[in-house]
Every structure is written in C-alpha cells, then in structure tokens.
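#data-curation
PF: Archiving a pair of folding outputs for the training set. Convention for this channel: one message per protein, sequence first, structure tokens after, nothing in between. First:
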Amino acid sequence: MSLAFTIFALVFLTELVSWIGKTVLLNIFYTLHQYLFHRSTVQRQRQLKKDILATKQELLQTSAQDQFAKWAKLRRKVDKGIDDLEKLSSEMSASKASYSTKFSTAVWITTSGAQYALGWWFGKQAVFYLPPGWFGPAEWWLSLLFAPMGSVSCGVWQMACKRVLKVGEGILKDFVLTDPASNAPTAETPTESTQASSEKTE
C-alpha cells in the first residue's frame, strides 16, 4: 500500500467519524458489545422492567382496604424490583462510562494519533515528486517540513486530502441531501395593504 493512499485512508476515516458523530458510533458499538458479551445482563434488565410493570398493573387493580395482605405483598415486590433495577442500571451506567473512555481512546489512536505518528515517522520522506519547475517557489512550501525539495510532504498531503474531503462533503450536502420540498415555491400570502384595498372595494 502506497504512503499516499495510506494517508488518504486515515484522513478519510477521521472525517468519516466526524460526519457520523462519535456519540452515534459509541452507541452503536456499545449496543453491539452488550449484545455479544453481556446479553444476560441486558435481558435481566428488560425482564425486571417487564415484571415491575406487570406487578404495578396488578397492584392498581388490588384494593388496599379489601385485600390489604395481597396489596402489601405486591407493594413490597414493586419496591424490591425498583431497587434491583436501579442497582443494575447503575452498574450498566458505570460500565458504559468505562467503555466510552476506552472507545474514545481507540478512536483517537486510529484516526488523529495514527496521522500524527505517520507524519512524524515519514516526515523526511516524499509522498510523491512533482514535475520539475511546475510550481516554482511553491515547491518549498509543498515540501514542508522536512521532505526533499520538489516533493509533497506528509503534512501537506494530509491537509490536501482533508480539504478535498471537506469540499466533497459540502457538495454532497448541497446536491444530494437537500430536501426538494424546501426549494419548492410557496404561495404568496396577501399583504395587509392588499387585504385593506379589497375590503374597501367590498
């Protein structure tokens, strides 16, 4: 795999994460993680919610005066179910917070961190060479910081890839994701002066 394509792939991955949103990706991967490794916990939480709702429904249909013993038993069952659910939800929240930290670290390492590391490791290497004399004095800028004169450096290539993807994102939003209904002409509403003149005519 060429260096130019590797840099472009990393920049594209970084922009893709930005387009989708890290929060959305976190929710998707966390849900998948829970389903694969903690399915029993998720099922237990759902079952607790289901049992609490069923017991509450039965409690509402039970008279506290005529059936006090049954009502008190159902009340205790509801309270215990709510306590168990709160403890389980608290444990799952702590688990998600820990997973969120690890996920954010992994995303940074595979996107921005990888770009920094690649730029540092190949800082003195040319991504590709330009035709001699085509860019004049700009050849010095295109080779910043430490690439050979007449070449394109990793840093400049990263900026170019990012700029192209940003432009592509703007074009996509303008021409593909624009709602056609928002561009449809709307019926003009009569102004106050027009309404007043029509009333005088009547």
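PF: Second:
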Amino acid sequence: MAEKASSIGLKSGEYGGRNGQSRKFDDKGLHAMYEPFWKDLPFTNIFACITPGILHQLQKGIFHNHLLQWCINIIREKEWTGTEHKEMQRVFVGLLSGTVNDHVLMVIHSLIDFIYYVQCQQHMDLLLRAMEESLKTFHDHKQLLINLQICEDFNVPKIYSLLHYVSLLQALRSAHSYNTEYPEHLHIDYAKDAYCASNKHDYIEQMALLLQCQEAIHHKSAYLAWRQLKRWPHMDSVDSATSSIGLCAKV
C-alpha cells in the first residue's frame, strides 16, 4: 500500500513549472509528494493512520460544509440561530421538519444520526450496526439531492471516508481519543490568547512570560485550595460542637 502511494508521488523535476499537466493535478485536487517519510517504513499502512475526525471531518466537514449548505439551497434561507455547529445539530432536524419533504428529511436525519453515533464514548455491536444502517439510508436516498439540483455529485473525500468509520472504530476505539478539538483548545489558550495579550512586538518572549505567570498563579491557587481543605475538618468539628451547644441550650 505504501509503495502504491509513493509511486504516484512526483519529484520536483517531474512537476516543475505551471504547465498543462500541473493544472490537471490542481483540477483534481491532487498535490505533489516528494519522497514521503513513511515510504520505506516496514509494516506501515499510511491509510490506516487517517483516523475519524469528529471536529473537522464530521462537524465542520460533513455537517457545516455539505449538509448545511444543501439544506440552505433547498429552503433558500440564509439566516440561522446559533453559531456553534454542535448547537445547530441538536435542533437541525426539528427546524427542517415541515419545511422539506419527508425523503429529504430522511437523508438529513440519517447523516445527523451517524454523526451522533460516532461521538458515543463506547461502541457496541448494536451501535455499529446502527451506524451502518444510517449510512446505508443516506446512500440509498442521496440521489434525491442530485435530482433537486442541490449538488452535482457526491465525490467528496469526507463523505467517502465515512465508509471506513466502523472498521476504524473497531480498530482504534472511541473517536474522542484522537479528537482534534482538545489540542485546538490548548492552541487557543497557549498561543492565540497569549499573542493577543502582547503588544505584537517581540511577542514570543511576552507570550512565554505570560504563560509562566499563569502557571505560577495556577500552582499558587492549587496550594491555597489544598490549605483550605486541610482546615475543613477542624471547621467541621467546631460547627458540630456549636450545633451541640445550641441543642443543649434549647433543652
């Protein structure tokens, strides 16, 4: 498999210049590969390293870039409440109910179900079969979108990749284990926010200093919280003694 992939790679001499051949590659969405690092690695199947992506493949790819755009073209509506893809998915089927016909709603419902099935923490055989049924329902009825001239075809890599999700989940387990949403949050906290807090000049040193101060505050807060916990047992005994005195006084 690795040899097959590397065989289509083009060396710089073969791909040089903006000629007609290179434009054909651009039209097909193909890019030159110059001696991929994994070509000579033993027992390596690079295609097995492409994991299911909840954020970029499903929420931003399948839902926002395709499913949402198809539905906008169907109902000719441009304004949507909510800005987060997750929030939109929760109410999407309800919003379209009564607006589109039942067959279109079935296509939408099947993809939404598939997206939510992938996001489960555990996948039993019953759930994997439900994923396959949802995807089969989509493929059985997707021609309707072409008939309505909503899209020209379904030659979309992200849609094709859904066919491999069941086998990938069986091999790699929960998709949350390699969800890119988590490191992206760290990138916001440690890079974007830190850069915005600088004066944009010599910002690397300022970013490092800010993160150092934040880490020191975090450790100090953790220490103060630990000291507060150490005091609680004594406070409990004082409170219990006070309550006992109060009961005796009432008697």
